[in-house]
Amino acid sequence: MAKIRPLSGFPEWLPEQRLVEQRVLDEIRARFESYGFAPVETRSVEPLEQLTSKGATDKEIYVLRRIHAGEGDPDTGFGLHFDLTVPFARYVMQHRGELAYPFKRYQIQRVWRGERPQVGRYREFTQADIDVVDLDSLSLSFDAEMPRLLAETLAALPLPPVVTGINNRKVLEGLYRGIGIEEVTPVLRIADKLAKIGADNVRRLLGEECGLSVTQADTCLAAAQIRSTDTSFVAAVRALGVTHELLDEGLDELAFVMGELADLPAGSVVADLSIARGLDYYTGTVYEAVMPSRPELGTVCAGGRYDNLVGGSGNVRLPGVGISIGVTRMLAPILAKKQLAASRSVPTCVLVTLPADEARGVARDVTRSLRARGVPTETYHAPAKFGKQLKYAQKRGIPFVWFVPTDAAAPHEVKDLRSGEQIVADPAVWSPPDADLRPSIVRSGAG
Amino acid sequence: MAKIRPLSGFPEWLPEQRLVEQRVLDEIRARFESYGFAPVETRSVEPLEQLTSKGATDKEIYVLRRIHAGEGDPDTGFGLHFDLTVPFARYVMQHRGELAYPFKRYQIQRVWRGERPQVGRYREFTQADIDVVDLDSLSLSFDAEMPRLLAETLAALPLPPVVTGINNRKVLEGLYRGIGIEEVTPVLRIADKLAKIGADNVRRLLGEECGLSVTQADTCLAAAQIRSTDTSFVAAVRALGVTHELLDEGLDELAFVMGELADLPAGSVVADLSIARGLDYYTGTVYEAVMPSRPELGTVCAGGRYDNLVGGSGNVRLPGVGISIGVTRMLAPILAKKQLAASRSVPTCVLVTLPADEARGVARDVTRSLRARGVPTETYHAPAKFGKQLKYAQKRGIPFVWFVPTDAAAPHEVKDLRSGEQIVADPAVWSPPDADLRPSIVRSGAG
After folding, report:
1. Residue A149: in which H helix or E strand, if any?
2. Is B135 part of the contact surface with chain A (CB cutoff 8 Å)?
3. Residue in chain A lying closest to B61 (CA)
4. pTM reported for the whole predicted model
5. What span, in angstroms and rounded, lies between the C-alpha atoms of A217 and A199?
6. DSSP letter (8 states) at residue B121
7. pLDDT tens string B148-193
8. In this structure, are residues A432 and A375 in contact, taking their beta carbons and an 8 Å threshold?
9. Which of A120, A160, A326, B305 has CB 3.0 to 4.6 Å from B284, enough for a Cys bridge?
């Protein structure tokens, strides 16, 4: 057998860790569905020209080659997708006559990036995305629905709190244009680095690279420092004294979104004018979420409004808005440190012991009866000593052990291995407490 | 935007189809967990030497190359896995000190094969596997547990009936050796083709390619025609008059497995001595399941006992047994023909209409209240005409529409769009019938 080793950047888990990941994914899916988002999965590959056409040429894409390909035909022309937005845009265009608009979909899948692995960066990881697209124009209500659903979903997960920052590209663009900046994109890119490189470096770069005057740069920096948990950011921007039509539009949109979210728990969303997002295709609202207790993880969820990503050929226009949850990015460091784990390493709630080979039939009947009532149950596979059978249950954290009588007249008994309590039980009616049916998620002290 | 097109061999579904696939996968997972199998996912890639070391050199593997790789470094050395057994064997070896034995795991993931697509063959598809491995030796009980769990799982799916054929390599090998055949593998390979090429061709090839006498070939063919739904196959094999130690062992094992399964519904399992399985690593029990109503799909589930696949280095020995369900192979043709579909294209059970912008707050409260009771609910995004809002629900098959009063003193009402019945309802207590909470699976006539 070939060398056995972990591959850097390709996380893998033991069952007790996978049970946590699975619970997190189930919870995310349930929340997405409670809002009426429909499930979609796309193929894992896209034609390379698709993957590289949306400003993603700097992405490290994995290209596929058939192992038996001939000399002259090295690649298939397909690459593994590096996010779920580009495949979704393609999916919508491909099926656009078969979908009902506004089309709300969620998509939870693995994505791949051929990056050099480092802290918080993976080469294979899972994202959970929600997006809405509509024909011609898309209601701003959806820009507000995204962070609401995100906040509700994240609050339901066994993870540290996450704060979602919201901005609007039109606010920044309008502001820049209002102070006479013509080339907006490079300014956006530099302003986006504020948290990483600090105000002094941003000011210097805005001068050196974009030719901004000190006054212009100071206005950009002053804007980037505006944050509010309500709509008071509007007054703060107005106080900068800049006017521009696009700025007004952006402020109206962002104020609507923040107003719609006023009932969310304090601290879950914040208007944050420093957020620009690197990707070209955002045209309005942008989102960027962080875990304040784990700043080293960086952005854990992100997204925004893209009015021109889908469509673009002829007169088809399908504006969209979406958010992506970086499931692996949030969860992997916590799982790796075992700060969360499942209460047992198997789904099994009851182990039915086997006292003798002759009891296989009875043990099977008990097992079937428990399973039929939704209780995950195993029969021990051989009539081994009871000590060995108990150890099987203990080692896996299985909470209950069932004793099948060898004498048909004797009663069945069930034992709670945690309390040690053992009672007579009827296999046709006994059920464990609901809380024991599935493994629960246990936080360790360091979590 | 690049050319938009489906890629042959990479199936993709509309939401109403994906809802069916998801329901099938949920059901499979629930059954696997009810038997205590623990969830595992492995990374999608394995080192190429791993993928090609287990008799799989004829597999068309997709190799990964970074798009920005240098001239001298064309490949990463990783390939996408083509099944879930090889990655599982690697996973067990890698984590062998951290697992509890016997280790029962299930794994539901996509796999990839760079094959030329044809009917029933895909380049990306989903498999659902169960396997058990143990240290040193593995109880034969598990050989019987596999087809039991498989039969129960398949019976719970909205699919045509599946019959699982069971054989034991030791029966065939013992029989072959008992009639003086020394090179068993080529005979197994040819015998395995019986269903495809017919008895005459098998007889001819056994003579031409393996040098078998007519009497030897006839015995092989006579054995391959033995089938029984109980343990009567033993007498039929004995009647061939061949004796060999390995044959006795195989017959005992297969009789035990069939005996353990005697309580399964008639026709779900059959001892079928024509089954050989192509893969080298099987050492005992082998399984092969077909859908009699869809013979063109070929083998839809398969597996077997492998005593030497895991381990092999030094004195580590981890015998295993497993079965793989070809989810895509079974489901894709049925989904493609729309013989199964979801009763609605969205998870949404209730659409809360929006009579006016001022009602957003009330509509949101109703929506939140319904969601909190587990009812997937959407608020219509804009105060459009009621006709338009109703059409939104109808187009998606959403069963209930909620009417928010514009006058605070007026009552809320809810309408069942199917019956037309409209009633006064209290948002704090009303719930739909349980059957309407999730989309149901609908069979079309042709199914």
Report:
1. helix A141-156
2. no
3. A67
4. 0.95
5. 10
6. B
7. 999 999 999 999 999 999 999 999 999 999 999 999 989 988 988 8
8. yes
9. B305
Q: Does B256 touch chain A (CB under 8 A)?
A: no
Q: Would the pLDDT of B3 be above 90? A: no
Q: Which of residues 50-79 of B touch A (CB under 8 A)?
A: 50, 52-53, 59-68, 74-76, 78-79
Locate all alpha helices (DSSP H) within A273-356, ordered by sequence.
327-336
pLDDT > 90: percent of chain B: 82
Decide: helix, strand or coil at residue B290.
strand
Question: Which of A13, A35, A136, A358 best tests the B interface by mutation, with the highest count of B CBs <10 A?
Answer: A35
Return the HEC string of A15-31.
Answer: HHHHHHHHHHHHHHHHH
- Sign (positive or negative) of CA dihedral A333, A336, A339, A340: positive
Q: How far apart are CA A154 and CA B74, in angstroms?
A: 41
Strand partners of residue B168: B285
Return d(Cα A408, Cα A370) in angstroms, integer: 19
**Chain A 428-447, residues with CB within 8 Å of chain B CB atoms:** none
Q: Give bridge partners of residue A47 from the DSSP assignment.
A: A78
Closest residue to B2, CB basis, from A18, A35, A47: A47
Nearest to A313 among B1, B15, B91 (CB): B1
H helical segments located in B192-280: 194-210, 214-224, 233-238, 245-260
Inter-chain Cβ pairs, chain A and chain B, closer than 8 A: 236
For B:402-431, CB contacts with A below 8 A are: none
What chain B holds in terms of domains, given with CATH numbers, is: 7-162+291-342 (3.30.930.10), 167-265 (no CATH), 345-443 (3.40.50.800)
Distance, in Å, from the CA atom of A250 to the CA atom of A168, rounded to the nearest integer, reads 6
DSSP one-letter code for B192: T
Which ranges in A2-140 belong to alpha helices (H)? 15-34, 48-51, 85-94
Contacts of B15 in chain A (CB under 8 A): 38-40, 105
What are the tokens at B441? 């699976």
Distance CA B37, CA B29 (A): 9
Tokens of B391: 């059409």
Res. B62: pLDDT tops 70? yes
Record the tokens describing residue B327, joined without a space. 């989810």
Pair of tokens at residue B381: 């995004």
pLDDT over 60 at B447, yes or no = no
Tell me: cis bond preceding B265? Omega within 30 of 0 counts: no
Token pair of A132, please? 């809405």
| Inter-residue contact A146 to A264 (CB < 8 Å) | no
User: Peptide bond before B102: cis, by omega within 30 degrees of 0?
Assistant: yes
Instruction: Kindly provide the residue ranges of all beta strands, DSSP E only, lying in A117-258, ordered along the sequence.
Output: 124-133, 163-168, 227-228
B1, B351, B380, B390: best to mutate for the A interface, most A CBs within 10 A: B1
Q: How far apart are the first and last CA of chain A?
A: 38
Instruction: Give the CB-side neighbour count of residue A232, counting CA atoms within 13 A.
Output: 6
- All residues of chain B having their beta carbon less than 8 Å from the beta carbon of residue A375 are 34
CA distance B207 to chain A (A): 33
B347–chain A Cβ distance below 8 A for any pair: yes
Look-up of token digits 């150890």: A391
A241 touches chain B (CB under 8 A): no
Q: Which pLDDT score, from 0 to 100, does residue B191 have?
A: 87
- Nearest by CB to residue B43, choosing from A42, A124, A145, is A124
CB contact B160 to A (< 8 Å)? no
Radius of gyration, CA atoms only, chain B: 27
CA distance A162 to A160: 7
Residues of B in contact with A5 (CB under 8 A): 94
Which chain B residues are within 8 Å of A102, Cβ to Cβ?
Answer: 381
Start-end of H helices in B289-385: 327-336, 360-372
Inter-residue contact A248 to A174 (CB < 8 Å): yes
